[in-house]
# Entry
Amino acid sequence: MEKEFLKHLFQQEFSKMVAVISKRYGLQHIEQAEDIVSETFLLATETWKIKGLPANPSAWLYTVAKQKTLSYFRRNKIFEEKVVPALSQKQELLEGTDEFSFSEENIKDSQLQMLFAICTPEIASEAQIGLALRILCGFGIDEIAEAFLSNKETINKRLFRAKEKLRTEQIQLAFPAENEIVKRLDNVLHIIYLLFSEGYYSKTQNQILRKDFCIEALRLGVLLTANEKTNQPKTNALIALMCFHASRFDARQSSEGEQILYEQQDEGLWDQELLSRGIYFLKRSATGEELSTYHLEAKIAYCHCTKEDTVEKWEEILQLYNQLVIINYSPGAALNRTFALYKANGAAVALPEAEKLKLDNNHFYFILLGELYKSIDKTKAKEYFERSKILAKTSAEQQLIQEKISQLISDENI
# Structure
């Protein structure tokens, strides 16, 4: 039995099973749900090695997990003493009802409700990402630790505190009230955005892990479109943004692990199916009156889906960044706007705007200054590239910057 198959099956089914069990018995028992699901997979591994794979592995897991769950709560009298008093509906007390089934609809509802529960404002953003990776995406502690460049002990403590918060704040596995859904949805979308960024801009060298994070973020985004309340224009805009970025994932790094800049990427390696899905969701987002940051970022990403380097293209990108810095200013957006200004109107126009930013701890800032000074003062350009290399956090980035320095020296010697 292939190890990769089991790993994929675990990641695929773990979150579904934990969500359904937690929905039935309450988030205060989420750790028991995780233990039961882990025990189910352990039993599956041992049984399937001897008897071979069942016809439907997922159904086998659901059946065993349900049996283990009912056995656990009956044996410990938790159902009668703690769960029953907490339930408001009498008919929910019947253990054989659809309230505890692994039907497709119940899994989908449970995962959506778990997503909103995890994204409660009561839990710090970083802990929310950790919980999402563990509970909603089925990643192991080792993988989460690697993503955060941390260790297992730190991650376990962070997750324990987050789960404790779910208990003490009595967070329920349910959709927020109608008047709260919009506000809470913003937080959910933000966490999915951060989860995607954790994969796309990750500092880990594990290419497979990075890509898996992006795929899981996309899956959670698409999950939101299955519910009328959460299938909002900004939801579709975020999915479009992730599709456009993810389409270039395989072109961003060479087989030796070296980072490849956008301008040097092989367009033939871009995933055309993901590009098409991005366009589909971008069109779906073009309704209503709200213009979110996801709309603007998705449209900017769409502009980059063609490598033609025209003034008209950069003028459009510049106008989009002008809107973005007005509705949601960030140093990164301001930096990217200045680069677009440079591409549209030249270094002389962009340089005064760049120097106003004063992002002295940002290596991308000094890369931009180096680019702007290349045609004006090569000595200054070299100084800025060298400062950016000192600040760069990964060897791949440092290597790219060194290539710029070497090219600058080569041009000087011509």
